[in-house]
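**Tokenised fold:**
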Amino acid sequence: MNPLLAKANWMARDDIRPYVFVRPENQIAQPGSVHRLNWFQQEPIFKDPLDISELAFADRLYSLEERAFGPSNMAMPRWVFYDCAVMPGFVAGFAAKPSALSKEMREALDPQKFPATGSPIKTSSVLKEVTSLDEMDWIPLSLFIIIPTMHKGEWVAHNLCSVNSLVPEGQGFYGLGFLSKAFGLWYANVDQCSGMTQWGSPALKLHSHYGHLEVIGAYAPVHSHAKTITYRVQVNTNCWEKFFNKEPDLAFLENYGPTGTFIDPKSEESMLDFQKRIERSEGPFFLSAGEIAQKKLDEKLMIYNLKQQY
């Protein structure tokens, strides 16, 4: 294992494995062949979303996503998960044997048994009741949904969450969310990844470390949450290491320079002004992952562009 991942030693355990929840037709032909990386040594577990015998695994994915995004009113309906995620794309992440779960994780992942921790898991009324944790072979700890687009080589990162957000700080698996997305991008040989998150969200600190983050949309009134940033990155595994070692990204500093203008995550007017600049083709514009990591969520961020444009 890469020494930078020493804190994530759970990745070497036999009772925790990466998984791919994908219909057979969507399986990647040569997984992990583009980005040379030695982080993911274990063989993934495969689950087929069209196989009814895998319903318990799907139900746990639904529950995890609902608990993570329900409070912000962004949980997915089951039909969206099926129609828009697993049919065109796939879900990746990490899963554990029941014996690998701590008491805190069991309570977080089993709202059926611990109703105070979340909504009961829903399943089909014509099938058996919800499968208990101890009846399952593997239990999903995280999920990353990634969907191919009509733009060749580009994928959309639709959703990312992990059990870490549902347990007290320090009780989860170190780096689980970041490594779940990293595994999906690596596994699917993704060159270009686009995605969406909200200004001021802690998720921006994570998503900005998969490649130099270009802002292709600063305001999204078409979205349910207009204060949304739409971004694009050329996947670069050199940036991934900096998420763990906190080293400066010298390549970013070499290629991009500050414009002297800022985006204010607290100001809708600032977002709209930035959006108009993008629409006038004044960019491309970028944000610094290092700066995002160092600043508070509501602080202004410098807008960068390519140095050769000056």
